[in-house]
Amino acid sequence: MTQIERRARSGGPDVLIVDDEDDIRELLELSLLRLGLASDGAGTLADARRLLGEKRYRLCLTDMRLPDGDGLELVRYISENVRDLPVAVITAFGSMDNAVTALKAGAFDYLSKPVSIDQLRALVKSVFTVPSKDEDGGRKDSSSLTGESPAMVQVRSLIEKLARSQAPVFISGESGSGKERAARMIHDLGPRAAAPFVAVNCGAIPENLMESEFFGARKGAFTGADSDRDGFFQAAHGGTLFLDEVGDLPLPMQVKLLRAIQEKKFRRLGDTVETAVDVRILSATHQNLKAMVEAARFRQDLFYRLNVIELRMPALRERSEDIPQLAEILLGRLAEASGQPVAHLSQGALAALKGYAFPGNVRELENILERALALSSGNMIEADDLLLDPADMGDANHATPATPGSADLQDYLDQVERHAIEEALEKSGGNRTAAARQLGVTFRSLRYRLERLGIKE
Fold it and tell me: Does the predicted TM-score (pTM) go above 0.90?
């Protein structure tokens, strides 16, 4: 007996079907019975609210058009009053705007008319493998995104909520801020955790190979296709497809991707029939997709489909309080990989890292620490071992006094460094030892910089 069948036979109905057409309700009831699920039917919004007040269900299916309202009202009602109940909307063919609006309002997923048994089976499988709160104990948690800053606590909380939905999520943030790690966590904490997670760097695929890489190809579809091959969509079937750097997709491919997402089916190169696919789409880019839409470099309709829910990953300079914990973890990994004792950061080195802007975010922090390990003598990393770029020193949350234009790059870097040193000296009342400590450099290093830049206290 399957898990679904055990739950169906343990008590009352599992599913509430809300549709004003008797024949559609009956068809859905029969289809659910084939999956081992009992159901109740409601023909109006009022009947649905009444039943929701009387019984507990594990899934609600609702049509978008009802005699006394619409499915969107029911989605909002459930989101506010029955928060643990997943609700899926049933939309007419070609009414994707309704589906996206419902997903934004809190719907778990959507089904397109006419509803096929395969679509229904995939939805039911997703819903009935979502863990309840008391079942979460044995699952992977979200601790792999390190940090106790308010920004990271909020990110982890949102990820746990997003994991329970099937809505597309767009992850924004700078390069190196952990977008793929966040996508993996959404997958690992959700009902698709046991299925594949397929990550695709859209910017790394040659344009002439893009369609076959995404959708696969039949033998003989093009020169060199000597056997059938699956694409990313088939590889991710039942799981999650993560489209990294989605802004790099060329416009012709954006059209094909949009259709595959909307219709939940695709056609392999050289094939005459379409293949149904069940994947959850997560996407990310460091680019400003809204600006790309305005510049006609990215399709507005595709952006609308991908950006149902946005998860913004904070830059490392926005959570500098997490740097000591991150650095400790990264140094531990580097020590394990090299077989060397774990190194530690001096107070000066920590202060320097906290005052650094980190244009490359966590990825850059790891590179800096790896380089510092090679340069340091012993197990204590000093500020000078970090070799931080002076252009990114100072207060990471404030703009530098100038921007590089036609001036020589070294002149620009000197200007930035001079500004940071003069500000530190002013704050310390001219005390060079205190200024060096504030800048995270040694007294000897500061004295050298004062001489080189011609700064007189």
Answer: no
